[in-house]
Amino acid sequence: MESKEQDQQEELNAGKKAIVSYAKYTGVAFQMIAIIGVFAFAGYKLDEWLKHETKWVTALMCVIGVCLSIYQVIRSLKS
Questions:
Q1: Between the CA of residue 52 and those of 4, 44, 46, 58, what are the distances in Å?
Q2: Could you read off the pLDDT of 2-49 as tens digits, one per residue?
Q3: By the 8 A CB rule, do 34 and 72 touch?
Q4: Distance set, CA 67 to CA 2, 16, 33, 35, 52 (Å)
Q5: This model's pTM is above 0.85
Q6: What is the mean pLDDT of residues 48-68?
Q7: CB-CB contact of 63 with 26 (8 Å)
Q8: Helix H segments across 1-79?
Q9: Is 36 exposed, middle or buried (CB count within 10 Å of its CB: 0-12, 13-18, 19+)?
């Protein structure tokens, strides 16, 4: 009897760990989207304000946003 209860408890704990892990990685994905989106929007607005025909500031800000989001992911996955 005890063995069965222990097995059930272990299954519950494994399920809880999976949900926590899923939530953590989902949060990381949304964080990446937010960082890249903010930088892209800022670049777009700068290009509009500076009246550039070629949207090079937007492109540069997108690249910076991607680099920062990758750095943030690596930093959060280490902890």
A1: 69, 10, 9, 10
A2: 677 776 777 777 777 777 777 777 888 999 999 999 999 999 999 999
A3: no
A4: 51, 32, 12, 10, 24
A5: no
A6: 96
A7: no
A8: 2-50, 56-78
A9: buried
Higher-confidence residue of 56 and 2: namely: 56
Q: Distance (Å, rounded) from C-alpha 13 to C-alpha 6?
A: 10
The Cα–Cα gap between 40 and 62 comes to 5
Tokens encoding 63: 């690249």
Taking the C-alpha atoms of residue 5 and residue 22, their distance in angstroms, rounded to an integer, is 26
